[in-house]
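User: Hi! I have a protein structure encoded as tokens and I'd like to know what sequence might fold into it. I'm fairly new to this, so please keep things simple.
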């Protein structure tokens, strides 16, 4: 019984796993396992400078002048970037910027538009 959560209604330790939900045999309370999973997932994912979650297809605004590697171009603060794509790695946003072309950004230097 050690790895099951106590009943949120009566704090009983005798809750059991009923497949899709937990059930408390003492007070009859039933509660969903799914909600807990969703809560855990909330800490994952790519977030912008303000901590807002980013998803594929989002539009973001650059909050800092960013030099483009291997060129003299600079992505100016305030530049809008449409249809981002999240990728793994240090630079976790793949996108295409008007006048510059495809490039990668760090999520910490953008905010959700
Ligand atoms: Zn209970």
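Assistant: Happy to help. Inverse folding works backwards from shape to sequence: for each of the 113 positions I chose a residue that suits the local structure. Here it is:
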């Amino acid at each position: 019984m050690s790895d099951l959560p106590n009943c949120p209604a009566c704090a009983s330790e005798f809750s059991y796993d009923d497949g899709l939900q937990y059930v408390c045999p003492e007070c009859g309370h039933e509660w969903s396992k799914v909600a807990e999973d969703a809560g855990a997932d909330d800490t994952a994912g790519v977030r912008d400078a303000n901590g807002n979650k980013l998803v594929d297809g989002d539009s973001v605004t650059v909050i800092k002048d960013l030099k483009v590697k291997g060129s003299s171009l600079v992505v100016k603060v305030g530049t809008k970037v449409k249809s981002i794509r999240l990728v793994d790695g240090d630079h976790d946003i793949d996108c295409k910027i008007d006048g510059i072309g495809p490039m990668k950004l760090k999520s910490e230097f953008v905010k959700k538009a």
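A useful reference point when you look it over: The pocket of zinc ion is lined by residues 7, 9-10, 12, 24, 26-27, 29 (CB under 6 Å). Feel free to ask if any position seems puzzling.
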